[in-house]
Specification:
- By secondary structure, the protein is of the alpha+beta class.
- The chain has a domain at 5-276: Glycoside hydrolase, family 65, N-terminal domain (Beta-galactosidase, Chain A, domain 5), CATH 2.70.98.
- It contains 20 helices and 30 strands.
- The longest helix is centred in the C-terminal third of the chain and has 24 residues, at 477-500.
- The chain starts with a strand and ends with a strand.
- The mean pLDDT is 97.
- Bound molecules: 5-hydroxymethyl-3,4-dihydroxypiperidine.
- 5-hydroxymethyl-3,4-dihydroxypiperidine binds next to helix 5.
Amino acid sequence: MHNHYVIEDAFNSEAQHARETLFTTGNGYLGTRGVFEEGYPGEQAMTLIHGLFDDAPIFHTELANAPNWVHLVVVIGEERFRMERGEILGYHRELDLATGVLRRTVRWRSPAGHTVDLAFERFASLADAHILGVRCRLTSVDYAGLVELRAGLPGFVENTGLLHWEWRDQYRLGTGGVVLELQTRGSRQALGMATALQVEGATLTVQDCDWQPTVVAAAEIAPGQTLVADKLVAIYTGRDVPDVRAAVSYKLETAVAAGYEALRAASDAAWATEWESADVTIEGDDEADLALRYSLFQLLIAAPRNDDRVSIPAKALSGWGYRGHVFWDTEIFMLPFFTLARPDLARNMLHYRYHTLPGARRKARESGYEGAMYAWESAATGDETTPRWVPGPEGGLIRIWCGDIELHITSDVAYAVIQYWRATGDDAFMRDYGAEILLDTARFWGSRAEWHAESERYEINDVIGPDEYHDHVNNSAYTNRMAVWNLQTALEILDWLKVQAPTRAAELEGALDLTPSRLEHWRDVIARMVVPHDPETGLIEQFDGFWSLKSVNLADYEPRTKSLQFLLGIEETQGYQILKQPDVLMLLYLLESEYDTETIKRNWDYYTPRTDLTYGSSLGPGIQAALAARQGDVEAAYGHFIHSARTDLQDVRGNSHEGIHAATAGGVWQAVIFGFGGIRITEAGLTATPRLPQGWTRLRFRLHYHGKPVDFDLRP
Ligand code: IFM
């Protein structure tokens, strides 16, 4: 593998929280921010486990922050090693993307003048999701005396001021390990963690501090001597097993028997297999090559592997942002990568949408509609979890309307189902799960379309399209066209099902009340839905009245570090032709085959200068890049692509501390594969129309089409 290290050569306490996000590690079961083992003032230590939601004010539900398993305190004589005390004589941190191992080396001189070299590494096993390991290698430079290593399970963790845990139990294991059992206060989910410390030549004791059982290793050390401490952790929740106590005890016992080296080797081997399918190599542009690999790493560590009732949240499992809720970010931005590189994982995440159909049905019913209306923000059950009011940046409360009226998520989920099916040919999935999603989302649109007798057209009014700078708009082109697409596709799938699986077709016709008159109504909506498109100019009006909004020259606001919505105010921005992110262009990107190149170009020229790409939504630039590259404007594409690729590596938006921009990571992949590689999924297979940026000498990747790997090796 080419570039695979993300490196930090100096510790910068100012950037601490963004770096914690940047150095997030995980294994598809949990994600852990890159905090230091010994702790640091103001740190945002966080381990988020898929599906471990608990009730929360404002946000309805959020992932409960689990005990910080990397916790390992080093004491030199009387002094506790801490980066903010004593002197840092050397520092290096690197995330090895090839193996998911995070390493840090520090030469530290204590306030009393003792010098030691510390080398930490950690991994969350990809071979066994329930095993975690930390190794600390401590070498004395000039110190002779007692050292202690304290490996705890600190249970008293909170989510920004909210304590989700009740203590259940803690105890020692015969093997010398300790166990902590907690339970979420609202959702009553059990969590068990067990840890053991292995240090050759040290005396081990256990401290039963409340909420924080700790194993302590003590040893004498002399200059030149090295002590290696391995902290092994086992973890289970009540979502995984009925008896977390038995599960963690057994898992820890097997981990201790295997030892750190063997556990890490197994994880490394799993990563090697992982990258065989997922890796993309860009030759001639090291920055792009590393940035893309980093994006893929973040997607891979967030993708659930053994649980199809969870999916990837907007900030993956790496930060407080959006509280672990799942948005269209997953289906439209991240899923294409999984569909083509790891279809098994894509299927898993589509199952999440299948399992949350009951929540989507409840939302439709409560809103006065039929079928399945997906939650704009979704968590464990699929019920709407978008906060209604949030504190504004300058005090006061802001009403968030997305949960009520940002409807397009429903067709976005349907879109991902079709894209997966076309790429994989997974008919069993379509028959058993996908068709139901497509038909029930169509039912929603059929009931949501409003008939306007005077114009004899259907309209969808009072919505928010992808461009969230405008709310309560009528006839959003994206929303209406995607609704029509959803209805059309549902009819096609029903026809397909009748031929391929007549029993299932009959079952769904009955269960979803797919009467001939309902299907006729769908056809009518398809034929007479308003989708604004001026045949003369080729321009698509983003929503009714967009053309009459005030124009603005975005360049007049440069330089800036804030979004235009922030600078102008929420209400004021609504009056301008300023977009938070591609909207009409997003539609042209998703339904590219239905529009000619001239239409795409004209809309590109119109909307791009009106889009707040640098400080609007981070979801936009990757898609702008892909669309531009497909139209042959490689230079413009590269600008958008590299901006997107730097999002978290350079914290270009200044908000990485909230968590990884996971949709952006998916957009970076799409820019490269669908944009510069020009990949299209066609009936006949995958096709490529490569347009490599200046300097790229080679682009290599593997995709999967209908169950078979296809290797691409593209040159300028
Ligand atoms: O889903 C996005 C939305 O498109 C823009 N605001 C942030 C959301 C979560 O990333």
